[in-house]
């Protein structure tokens, strides 16, 4: 006799408490029909009780139990309820949850927007767990943007709190630090984080992160050229990661397996894994800067195999990947090492299309080729226009001296309400301070400069605005950037400095602040300026 197992009607769950319903939601994750009943019952009970926190939790349950874009809809509901409650804690938590959802969907700009929106509410809430959870998630965005130093600082600040209060978050943080050290090229420290992660997992009897530590160890082994061990560890890590529907890290594992085979010259064994990465890109549009090489390797393989149709297919994919990287990684894109720039790709595409045209003269093929080529030409024109703009700015910077025409700044006083003798004294001391390059010190503040100039902060601020036509922070940053530009012009050794070294040289507290200040001052990225000046000036010096 067969037994029919049916979900209990919602009404029969009215007497159950929230703890019971919450545990059933978690336990029924493999039975979506039954889980939906418990979700609806929890939500119905929270609405009836008019409890804002439980109502936010009810929608959070839906977020945790739903896939893809529907998650965003439920975080919107969380936010609506939280705003009605007026609770800083609930509003901050809702924004944070929304950011985490966007991060999971690889929509990083929207993730960061929500994290920043959460910050003031969480700060006012005095909820320590939310504060560290927000720090942790912002750190992941910084890691994603290759701001490794800042990410490491944030992750490290979370470590002790999570160690005492949340075992899984603690293990996640150890893993995240390992990722940052790997990204920096410090594989020894990354391996140390992996080893510590395993030890702590055993101590805590929590092995949820073991597959990710193995995954990271595989990447470290690849970077250390232990290719066989890299392949072994990465392959072992995939089933558990697939079980968590983490397609992004599966793609990363496939990529480094393929790279390991490629480095061992086992090209045909690499190709299936490269194609798996390409499939994730087709289905999810998931791409990050290091995965770009995936398409370059496929193009290289099929060129050698003399298969023009396959070459053309992956050239198209590479162009699409570049388009996504440009729109979402403009701050990173100029640091990506590209073996196929846009012009080369255009030529490659034309060559392959010509081969195909010789083999097949179908009108459909020609029409598709022309459409694709028109897109490529549009991309090329945009690239050329931007490059010409950058060249004009670069040549202006190269030819001008340190002095600049004063610019109009809102708020500049027509007259200084300061005694003339005092103004003369302050300006003289300020010029001495500039001449002695005191601006290269780290963490310069307006009060500290006022002490040096033997006056008060208002006088300093007004005089800088009046005579330098800049507000204090812009004035300091521009002096530092101008110093670096002059050093790059005159000192060939400093043209080989990394951004970290240049930031240190100029007294910036972080590399990112240096990059931001450089772009604000010059409208160019430091990468572009450094590469251009090395090329042009070193040609002249030959």
Automatic annotation (TrEMBL):
Ranges annotated as spanning the membrane: 364-385
Domain HTH araC/xylS-type: 424-532
GO MF, one annotated term: DNA-binding transcription factor activity
UniProt keyword list: DNA-binding, Membrane, Transmembrane, Transmembrane helix
InterPro entries (UniProt xref): HTH_AraC, TPR-like_helical_dom_sf, TPR_rpt
Gene3D superfamilies listed in its UniProt record: Homeodomain-like, Tetratricopeptide repeat domain
Keyword Transmembrane annotated: yes
PANTHER family, alphabetized: ARAC-FAMILY TRANSCRIPTIONAL REGULATOR, HTH-TYPE TRANSCRIPTIONAL REGULATOR EXSA
Protein name in the entry: Helix-turn-helix transcriptional regulator
Organism: Flavobacterium zepuense
